[in-house]
Design brief:
By secondary structure, this protein is α+β, with helices and mostly antiparallel strands. Helices cover 39% and strands 13% of the residues. Strands 2-1-6-3-4-5 form a six-stranded mixed β-sheet, sandwiched between helices.
Length: 623
């Protein structure tokens, strides 16, 4: 059988020697591991030695896509980066959109694996099958911001359509929250993949491709694809087109779920003009779409030209960076948020981890753990200008506190000592996304069992609480909740392996829709049962990676704040999570997954999922 959609070529780049190896990946590998997340999980499990230091040359960086880039399927131009995370010490992954995946696929690439560390800073050019490892010094690339690097490379290759995924100063200086920026406003943001690139002296990866893309059944694909495009411009995605993800600011705040003041509260007290609608009507200047996407959820907002500090700054507005750099830092200054976003994107830092780490710093400042003389200015909640200053210092490691905070809140708390760890809002080392979980008894488990640390994109169980699937203030039906949490997580494993955007949730009517489009592209007759079994296997393999790296049941609990400190306002006023109830739901989730009470997959579960090769190999190195 000829399997379309995949090039079935694997490229190994040995940065230490400059050797480039081309090999093949089997049809069986493609079908069982799907792409993206699945490819990354399998390669890292097979090839990364347990106990490897994430910042050593022995760490492996995997770049992978799914079968769809280059087609006109909506939201199909996405790629993933995978490595052992320097931030968590566990399975690291970050996914981004834009034009990268389409160009890479047209250049002939599905799977690229980077080994070792270059002797000097380099970038790599993938040009229609030709691959070159090139020194940064020849075009003065190292030391530049991600945006400037992108411009330099496009000018150097005389191609404005060149796709560049690169790091900024944060990645070069090994900030553990460093991200990878592409298409200016798109980032492979979480778990420090930019730090891994920096540790390998890898500044940027460039793609230029012109090859045509074949699908197995062009006529049927055209019919289905047209239908999916039509659905993508319908009601299922209308809120993202109209107001972008900030459309949820008011509704989540009204439910007491909007993190603010470093998650002391879930109901923000400064909502005046703090809505997606106000932002759209007053500051948004352009709406941008990724390749092959009719939704255009990326809404760009601009600081007015007469602003005394940040005139003309343009930032990509998302509910997560608005929360992290705004409400969680106790302010609603749109101009400061916009400027902070631009700094994060250019310096190359994950906006969620960066903003939440600044909020941690603000609480440490309030508690006297960080002194004013340590900072040189007032780092209090509500000071938007201070947020901007600290982000710049973190990205450049240009001050004492900026240097400490640049590695995320957990490492910072360890360095600061005292009670600082109480104020580090993270799971497994990864900072919290937007949702305050005091009154979210299902998502409290979902966000905490997430493979890569606190994350709403690995587990969307927040919908179970927001939509009232279960009583969000109680812990009844633990097994049913566990099954619901598992179902969402397995589906996301599939979505992130294919890789398509999660905003398409409403346009795929059911699992069969996924199978139908997969068959027209690849020629393989995928079934819903096999697709979900593959997703479950991918999730379990990355869980086993974490266990082998030293993760335990204790890593599946949220910060103590949620158990001991209640919000003072909003729907969750006076509410804390109950540890006994939480544990009951957590163990219900473990049971639903076929794991033991310590969260370890049983041999029976591993055999059922075709993961026999994992059995007996769950002991390894420390995080």
């Amino acid at each position: 059988m000829t399997l379309e959609g995949y090039t079935q070529e694997r490229v190994n780049i040995h940065l230490d020697t400059g050797k480039i190896e081309r090999g093949s990946i089997s049809e069986e590998f493609c079908i069982n591991w799907i792409g993206g997340y699945g490819f990354g999980a399998k390669v890292l499990w097979d090839e990364l030695k347990p106990g490897t230091d994430p910042l050593s040359p022995d760490n492996i960086l995997v770049w992978a896509i799914g079968p769809y880039p280059g087609t006109f399927l909506p939201t199909s131009s996405k790629y993933g980066l995978f490595a052992k995370s320097p931030l968590t010490g566990l399975f690291g992954m970050a996914i981004s959109s834009g034009s990268i995946a389409q160009q890479a696929r047209r250049a002939g690439h599905n799977l690229i694996v980077f080994y070792g560390k270059a002797e000097e800073p380099v970038y790599i050019m993938f040009d229609d099958g030709d691959i070159q490892i090139l020194p940064c010094k020849e075009i003065d690339l190292w030391g530049k911001g991600a945006w400037t690097s992108d411009e330099i490379l496009k000018e150097h290759f005389h191609d404005s359509r060149l796709s560049v995924a690169g790091i900024g100063p944060a990645g070069e200086k090994l900030s553990k929250i460093a991200c990878v920026t592409n298409d200016r406003n798109r980032q492979a943001g979480r778990t420090g993949m930019g730090c891994v690139m920096g540790s390998k002296n890898l500044k940027a990866i460039c793609f230029r491709g012109t090859k045509s893309i074949k699908v197995a059944d062009p006529k049927k694909f055209y019919e289905l694809g047209k239908d999916f495009v039509k659905r993508s411009i319908g009601t299922a995605t209308s809120k993202y087109r109209e107001y972008g993800t900030p459309s949820g600011l008011v509704s989540y705040n009204d439910m007491g779920m909007l993190g603010n003041y470093n998650f002391r509260e879930g109901y923000f007290d400064k909502m005046d003009k703090f809505s997606g609608q106000w932002l759209d009507e007053n500051l948004v200047v352009k709406k941008v779409a990724c390749s092959q996407c009719p939704v255009a959820c990326d809404h760009l907002a601009r600081v007015p030209k007469d602003h005394p500090l940040w005139a003309g700054a343009v930032g990509s507005m998302d509910i997560e960076n608005i929360y992290s750099l705004g409400s969680n830092c106790g302010h609603n200054d749109w101009y400061a948020i916009i400027k902070a976003i631009t700094l994060c994107d250019d310096l190359g830092m994950d906006t969620i981890s960066a903003g939440t780490t600044v909020a941690f710093g603000m609480e440490c400042f309030e508690k006297g753990i960080i002194k004013k003389e340590d900072v040189g200015y007032d780092l209090s909640f509500g000071n938007g200008e201070a947020v901007v200053k600290m982000i710049e210092e973190m990205g450049n490691r240009s001050s004492k506190i900026g240097d400490i905070l640049s590695d995320g809140s957990r490492v910072a708390a360890q360095k600061l000592g005292g009670d600082a760890m109480k104020y580090s809002m993270q799971v497994k080392g990864l900072e919290f996304p937007m949702f305050d979980i005091h009154g979210m008894s299902s998502f409290a488990v979902g966000v905490s069992v997430s493979i890569r640390g606190a994350c709403h994109l690995r587990n969307a169980a927040y919908g179970l609480d927001a939509k009232g699937k279960f009583d969000r203030f109680t812990y009844d039906k633990p097994l049913e909740r566990g099954k619901a949490i598992k179902a969402v997580e397995d589906e996301y494993a599939v979505i992130d392996s294919l890789i398509i955007c999660k905003f398409t949730r409403g346009i795929y009517a059911d699992k069969q829709d996924h199978c139908d489009i997969y068959k027209t592209v690849t020629g393989y007759d995928m079934t819903p049962e096999k697709l979900m079994l593959d997703g479950e296997a991918i999730l379990n393999l990355s869980k086993c990676f974490n266990i082998r790296a030293g993760a335990t049941k204790a890593d599946d609990y949220p910060p103590e704040r949620f158990f001991t400190e209640a919000p003072t306002r909003g729907p969750a006023k006076g509410v804390t999570l109950k540890k006994a109830g939480y544990t009951k739901v957590l163990e219900g989730y473990y049971e639903a997954r076929g794991w033991d009470k310590e969260g370890v997959p049983t041999d029976e579960t591993l055999k059922r999922l075709g993961l026999d090769f994992v059995i007996g190999k769950l002991k390894g190195g420390k995080k």
